[in-house]
Amino acid sequence: MSIAEQRLLNQSVTKSFFQYLFPTLIGMMLMSANIVIDGIFVGNGVGSIALASVNIAVPVWSILISVSLLIGVGGGTLYSITTGERDTGRAKQVFSISMVITTLIMAVIGITGYLAAESLARLFGANDETLQYTVDYLKIIFMWAPIVGWEAALSIFVRNDGSPKLAMSGLIISALLNIVLNYWMIFILEMEVTGAALASVIATAAGLMVYTFHFLKKDAGLKFVRLKWKKDDVVTVGKLGFPNFLSEAGTGLFVVGYNIALAYYAGTTGLAAFSVINYLHTFVFLAFIGIGTSIQPMISFYYGAKKYEKIKATVKIAELTGISIGVLFLAIGWIAAGSLVSIFGVETEEIRQLAIKGIRLFFIGYLFMGVNFVYMTYYQSIALIKQSIGITLARGVILLIAALIVLPAWLGTTGVWLALPFAEGLTAVVLLVFARRGVMKQV
């Protein structure tokens, strides 16, 4: 019996939830810290133009991580379901197929992205001032695309196989190494934006190496086996992972949409202010993904094992946790907005004041984001993909784009900052009023 089976069959839901939550939450926030650290060092060591350039390039991470989540979460969900059904042979096949697919797709994305780096930079919103910095950053990340993909996908499988602490350890090592390398490459070697990109990918590779220790455990369920390509397994992995793909890809759309809106309504000042908020948002956003990632192995396993009451208990405790974390982040944003802006080395008072206002309005969205991720993950974990995709598209694409078009025309930059809270809030209200009752009855 694997580690995951022993834990989920014999422990209470509450104990299992927090055993997954704390390491996963810390790990996800440290993952985002790799990107935030880039911003802090670039802002203080190179300047505001370079900081805006790295922010423009941030969607490249969304591209790579969204594909990794498509395969990793899809494969991890099917792996947990089949483990709950005690079909260990199929579970190993799912893992092996997922890692091979990740390798192939990341190699294609890496080569294509490297060759088209300048065109992508323009597409993401780079202008003449920011273009070269943005291209330099993009090329390094695309060169290391397979490493980024392996790290993201393998961390999910390690967590699903009952080792959330090891997954956390890899991210801790990655984050600490990223700090050291950023300082060395930016302040000592004076490699500017290129140094920040290299620091991130080298640190990511170190995290990947940590995950490989999972294979040395005697009771590890993850094993590479000879592939038996089954169309049904490949299609199922893609379907189960598609909501996470959309969610992460939507993050890239969110960045591009906000950059375009703020460039129109506030110019370069608005772009610089948003770069600060976006770095903070990356940190918080992955915390909410961490809640979803924590409950996915649990709900998928319970679903495969037909433990329906435990699914209901998992959803309830995740709801409460998501709302509590949202309240905490909103309080931090309102109380410490000035201090948060200061750590990025903002150069002018105009940018500083716009960023402070933006944080206080933008962070309202965090009150609702946790609820949305809980229900998106619930439906995904029991293979109800249409419902999960509907939530993802509503909060991250349809309502967000509509809000970015309508609210700024009415409220100016205030409307830009309120676009995300509007999209998240309306989605959460609909879920709590209409979906929650059905979820509790269904399980």
From TrEMBL:
Its main location: membrane. One of its GO terms (molecular function) is antiporter activity. One of its GO terms (biological process) is response to antibiotic. It is a multi-pass membrane protein. It is found in: Cell membrane. Keywords: Antibiotic resistance, Cell membrane, Membrane, Transmembrane, Transmembrane helix, Transport. The chain crosses the membrane at residues 20-41, 61-82, 94-117, 137-158, 170-189, 195-216, 253-277, 283-305, 317-346, 358-378, 390-410, 416-435. GO terms for cellular component: plasma membrane. Belongs to the multi antimicrobial extrusion (MATE) (TC 2.A.66.1) family. MepA subfamily. PANTHER family: SPORULATION PROTEIN YKVU. This is Multidrug export protein MepA. It comes from Lentibacillus persicus. The lineage of its organism: Bacteria, Bacillati, Bacillota, Bacilli, Bacillales.
